[in-house]
Amino acid sequence: MHELSIAQSLLDIIVDESNRHRLGRINKVRLRIGELAAVVPESLRFCFDLVSRDTAASGALLEIETVGVTARCDKCDFSFEVQDRVFECPKCGQPVFEMLSGRELYVMSIEGETGEEDG
Length: 119
Ligand SMILES: [Zn+2]
Prior knowledge:
- Strands 2-1-6 form a three-stranded mixed beta sheet, with helices on one face. The chain has a three-stranded antiparallel beta sheet with strand order 4-3-5, with no helix packed on it.
- α1 crosses α2 (41-51).
- By secondary structure, the protein is an alpha+beta fold.
- It has helices at 2-20, 41-51, and strands at residues 23-34, 61-67, 70-72, 79-81, 98-101, 105-114.
- The protein is elongated.
- It has a domain at 2-68 and 103-114: hypothetical protein PF0899 fold, CATH 3.30.2320.
- Bound molecules: zinc ion.
């Protein structure tokens, strides 16, 4: 399953980051995912729940922001948002192969708590 390997690498990134910031517990993770990354948010959440068990990220909320696909025409230099996966320049009708965004998968931010007791 595609999402399972993504969830696993996400977890690696998140655990790494949380160690760096000495977070004992992760509450929320904000992700930015391109439409063409072919990730189903529900499926990713499900897989993340599985792989994050017994880690600091267990039970963390995944906030997923989907990013539209943008492309640039190399003929007329026009940048536009791709609708319905039609990779064709709306200005001159050329097929467009250069994508500016749409495949990314970023961890935007991680919110959590340090493991320290609050007294
Ligand atoms: Zn064009």
